[in-house]
Amino acid sequence: MVTLKGEHIYLRALEPEDLDFVYAIENDTSLWHLSDTQTPYSRFLIKQYLENAQQDIFEAKQLRLAICNLENKTIGLIDVFDFDIKNKRAGIGILIQNENNRNKGYGKEALQLLTNYCFSTLHLHQVYANISESNLASLKLFEANGFKKIGLKKDWSFDGDQFANEYILQRIND
To answer: In this protein, which residues make up the domain named N-acetyltransferase (predicted)?
Structure first.
């Protein structure tokens, strides 16, 4: 039995009440480099997104879940993207919004829960992540969860001043 509840956090579907949280994350320019975002999102667009967030992963090819602590406070988001049922793979991305909630094991637990869900429930063969070479915290998080670096994409992202390399990490279900 797969559970999306851990010892310190749980994962849940997005709700209309998450509008302010998602709006804050999507419009925080300091986070844009993580998702290649280049423009702000309106409340209207995010509200529409939340209204359609219940779309089945097999149709939408993605799934975004809220990461909540046991006090029911939303602290981050975790995504399955590029869901490819034919090849049994998908990408994973994670963000813990407030720096005060980082380095407490919440991200590790959320990644473990979602990876287990991908393998046990979605029956994926592999999951992967794309992480900037300079994002040492995320590299450490994914590697601690069994992901292996399988390649380095040179000059992959441009921030307006310079290019940055990006690792691709992969975990295969054994």
So the answer is: 9-172
